Amino acid sequence: MIEQGVLRNLAILATVALIWTASQVAIRGAVSGGEPVSINSLQSISALIVRILTTPLLLIGFALQALNGFLWIAVLSRMELSTAAPIMIGMYFAMLLFASRFLLGESLGLGRLAGTALVGIGIWLILREG
User: Fold this and answer.
1) What local confidence, expressed as pLDDT, does residue 46 receive?
2) For the chain, what is the HEC assignment?
3) pTM of the predicted structure, to 2 decimals
4) Looking at the 3D structure of the chain, how many domains does it have?
């Protein structure tokens, strides 16, 4: 049985992964269908800053990332980085895969599903050790 403190930490990690996923879906939704973003000159960087400040989904995505920074500080005050990061990234990877499919309509190939399953096995191994 998993102890209460570990469950609380896993819940915070899942929240971080979920917010990170939401931020990436918002950003991808804001930039999909348009021209690729270029950051190879001062002018293109300025145009990108204006685009970020005038596109609600981009603002939401960046605000969610900022919120995640605060939550990540809370996580790292409770857990070792070598445990927290792989677990959170694994959760994020799985959430992002399904959000990409169901919210953005991206394809899910067998390789992506198999890779996600392997990541899940890795998370399980890390949890067993900790």
Assistant:
1) 92
2) CCCHHHHHHHHHHHHHHHHHHHHHHHHHHHHCCCCCCCCCCHHHHHHHHHHHHHCHHHHHHHHHHHHHHHHHHHHHCCCCHHHHHHHHHHHHHHHHHHHHHHHHCCCCCHHHHHHHHHHHHHHHHHHHHC
3) 0.82
4) 1
Question: Could you tell me the residue range of the domain that residue 76 belongs to?
Answer: 4-129
CA nearest to 126, candidates 99, 93, 89: 89
Question: Rounded mean pLDDT of 106-126?
Answer: 86
Q: Name, in order, each residue with C-beta under 8 angstroms of 93's C-beta and a sequence gap of 6 or more.
A: 116, 119
- Token pair belonging to 118: 């392997």
Q: Which two tokens stand for residue 130?
A: 């900790």
**Residue range 40-57, pLDDT digits in tens:** 999 999 988 998 899 999
CB 2 within 8 A of CB 77: no
